[in-house]
Fold these 2 entries.
Entry 1:
Amino acid sequence: MLNFSVKEADILFEVLKARRDVRGNRFLSKPISEEHLDKIFQAALHAPSVGFSQPWKFVSITEEAQKQKIFNIFIEENEKASELFKDTIYSDLKLEGIKEAPVNIAVYYSQKEKAILGQTSMDQVGEYSVVCAIQNMWLMARALNIGMGWVSILDSEKVNAVLKAPKDHKLIGYFCLGHVSEFLDSPELESLKWEKRKNKEEIIFKETF
Ligand SMILES: Cc1cc2nc3c(=O)[nH]c(=O)nc-3n(C[C@H](O)[C@H](O)[C@H](O)COP(=O)(O)O)c2cc1C
């Protein structure tokens, strides 16, 4: 049985705290090595999943033409979003790195064909499992000093069409990955005063809310 030291736990916490959402203005064109990409996928494969169903699928995208198609979908969706945030700094924010990042990865939930142990009352737990895999990738990427950013301002139907996703597959997240010029010390949305980090008292309750 592996027993970790407090020092090792501290290192894990350092990685957790240092993980950032990385956007286009910080990606470098330097390619990600196959070895590093493999480690990131291995991290995903070791995530927990309901009934050990491992309901995840990954599409890696490196061709400029494919990235451009996804970028066009982002532009269209972001224009709609800008309307909701008029009179804010929204339109000045860089919210993706689709073209700048050498690798994009679309992560899918592949719907169950049979009953899954544990997925009998809350159907969404299959999708939650995919999110666990995503977080593993994000942390492993950071431990390898590779930046990763989530792009959710996308029309999933249009992304599915570009990636020729099978009908029973659901897009969970679209990610940009690459080496970076820097990792910010704190979330950009915090330093721009868009949101503040919540403190424990606001979110942790005892016995009941
Ligand atoms: C589900 C999810 C969707 C997100 N979508 C976007 C996005 O579309 N564009 C973006 O710039 N950041 C996106 N983010 C990143 C968040 O803005 C970021 O995680 C948050 O501001 C905290 O910053 P940090 O990840 O650097 O700690 C997303 C994060 C999550 C978890």
Entry 2:
Amino acid sequence: MKIYIVTDNEGLAGVSSASYISPAFERQDLIAHTRKLLADEINACIEGCVRGGAAEIIVRDGHGDGQNVTRAMIDPRADLICGATPGELLADLDGSAGVILLGYHAKAGTPGAVCEHTMSSLTWQNMWINGRLTGEIGICAYIAGEHGVPVIMVSGDDKCCAEAAEWLPEAVTCQVKKGFSCNGARIPAPEKTNALIAAKAEEAVRRSAEMPLLLAEKPVTMRLELVSRQHLPVNPAYKHIDARTWELQHESVEKAFFFNM
Ligand SMILES: [Zn+2]
């Protein structure tokens, strides 16, 4: 059984603000700390997947440029995908029994959620797929669904887990912290959260065969509201809704997402 883990940094247990994940805050000490937190959560998750019966495990380093951990930091029982994979959010996903979203976060605008955003806190305000306000959990689950793979587990703060439960009621949720604001959290000891991740991953892998796919109706309509004006794409395939909002129809979420990107 092949299991695919895709990581983000905002929902790691020890991350309480953007200064842990964005070089713009010039806190290299916190960024280095986050790399270690990420590696420890990945390794706990791999351990759980193996216990649950996974024979092949791929870890996709999914935050920013995808270069947050090195190969040496990761359990040798998994392969690591890092860096750019043009046109593919989840490269080499096909044939997996399940996707685990590790260290995820709530969609843009969620009150009390740590580092809430959708894809880009600087440029994206809101995104809808077929009229439903969608965050990164929904985007990943739709794209995984198009490859015939269910999302089986989501970890992050309490708001992330609530969003996951709304979108993917069968999936295992793993709350590793409580959010108070975009930049405030209550964080348990990593010994506890890493053990929880391993236990939840084991459960998710064991139950993967019963998890349903999330499928978007086709054609897919993607609507994106940008943060600022004067950045609408000029390609005529994009319908301009207002000065900050465009809409695109395509045959799949994945193709709409990567159209012209
Ligand atoms: Zn991220």
